[in-house]
Each structure stands twice: as structure tokens, then as C-alpha cells.
Specification:
The protein has about 220 residues and is an alpha/beta fold. The chain has helices at about 5-15, 25-35, 55-60, 75-85, 120-130, 150-160, 170-175, 210-215, and strands at about 45-50, 65-70, 90-95, 110-115, 135-145, 185-190. It has one domain: Vaccinia Virus protein VP39 (Rossmann fold), CATH 3.40.50.150. Helix content is about 35%, strand content about 20%. The chain has a six-stranded mixed sheet. Strand 2 (about 65-70), helix 4 (about 75-85) and strand 3 (about 90-95) form a beta-alpha-beta unit. The two termini are about 25 Å apart.
């Protein structure tokens, strides 16, 4: 694991107990993404960047899928275990980097990732997702778009200190990656090697790495 990823893991672990209190946008994104999964889906679903396990808990109650959760932060996985204590379905949890999961090739029928790939090198993340998906498997991914939290950016720009460096650089960094999108979040559903299922996307967008996104 790189030094950058170790720092990310430590930061999320420290914030794990209070993460859900400030993650309403991520929770909404997860809900919308879960709604896209077919109700009769079967097989193995791998949640890459499972965080505190909110999506896994919903998936455990709403589907018959076998579930695996992966996150780089031990503290987030600890919160997931607490959240799943009363869930009867067994969920496997692994502390790993979603860019390099160490899982077998073509082991997943569904790969699910909500609000996580912005912390990764997108090329490596999508390559790993493609590697672990079985032929014909489906990929459900959401991440932040150019209008996510735009109100914060606008408020900052309107303030008297607008000449100062904006703390919302993550929003600005995505602006040029897809000028045609006006949605506040990006999501797409994909059959392996075919990026055309979700009507809003015909190809997977390039997502900036952490070093690019933080201005």
C-alpha cells in the first residue's frame, strides 16, 4: 500500500465513528445505486470501499446475494461489523485496497462501489474491477460529479475572502471531465466490457486521483 493510501486509511479510521453523521450525500448515492440492482440478482456481490457498511446492510436485507465488503480503513470495517451484528446473513469483510484486492480472477457477479473511486487512481481501480468481474457480470459505481456540493463552492466564491484558495477544490477539479453532465452525482451500470447500460453514460468517465483532486 502506498504512503498516500496509508494516510487515507488512517484518516478514515479516525473519522469512522462519526462518519455517518456527515455522509448524507453518500447515503443518498448508495440508495440510488442499490435501486439499480435487479431484485432477482444472484451470486456474489463485492462492495469496494464499503465504508461503515450501510450499503452492505441494505443489500443483506434486500437481496439473496453473497456479500463481500472491502475497505482500506480498519476503523471503517470495525463500524461495519457493529452495524451487521444483528444481520443474519454472513458478510465477509476484508481490509484491502480496492486497486489491488488480492481476490481471484472473475470471482464476482456484481461489483458495487459507492463514493470510493475518487480516492483511487481510476485506471487501476477500473482495471481491478474488470479483473474480478466474471464475464457478463455487472458493475455499479457512483462518484462525485461537477455539481456535487456546488452550493458550498458558490458560497465560498461569494464570500469576502474569495481570493483565498477554496477548500472545495475537489468540486472544481471535476469540472472539465464531463461538461455535458448536470447531475449532482455520477452513476452508471455496466455489463463487463460494455459501458452502455445506464442512459446517462456511454463510457466510464476519467476520475481524478486524490493528488489531482485536492487543490
Amino acid at each position: 500500500m502506498t504512503l498516500e493510501k496509508k494516510q487515507i486509511a488512517r484518516q478514515f479510521s479516525r473519522a469512522a465513528t462519526t462518519y455517518d453523521d456527515v455522509a448524507s450525500v453518500q447515503a443518498l448515492m448508495a440508495t440510488r445505486l442499490i435501486e439499480k440492482i435487479p431484485i432477482d440478482a444472484r451470486g456474489t456481490l463485492i462492495d469496494l470501499g464499503c465504508g461503515t457498511g450501510a450499503a452492505l446492510k441494505s443489500l443483506a436485507s434486500q437481496t439473496r446475494l453473497e456479500l463481500i465488503g472491502i475497505d482500506v480503513a480498519a476503523g471503517m470495517l470495525a463500524q461495519t461489523r457493529l452495524r451487521l451484528e444483528r444481520v443474519s446473513k454472513k458478510v465477509v469483510l476484508l481490509e484491502r485496497d480496492l486497486e489491488n484486492t488480492g481476490l481471484e480472477n472473475e470471482c464476482a457477479d456484481i461489483v458495487f462501489s459507492n463514493a470510493a473511486i475518487q480516492w483511487c487512481q481510476s485506471r487501476l481501480a477500473f482495471a481491478e474491477m474488470n479483473r474480478i468481474l466474471r464475464p457478463g457480470g455487472q458493475l455499479f459505481v457512483s462518484t462525485f460529479g461537477p455539481q456535487t456540493l456546488c452550493e458550498w463552492r458558490q458560497a465560498w466564491q461569494a464570500a469576502p475572502w474569495m481570493g483565498a484558495k477554496s477548500p472545495w477544490g475537489v468540486c472544481s477539479a471535476h469540472r472539465g471531465s464531463d461538461e455535458q453532465s448536470s447531475a449532482s452525482t455520477r452513476d452508471w451500470v455496466s455489463s463487463r466490457r460494455s459501458w452502455s447500460v445506464c442512459p446517462r453514460w456511454t463510457s466510464p468517465p476519467r476520475v481524478p486521483s486524490l493528488s489531482e483532486a485536492v487543490v
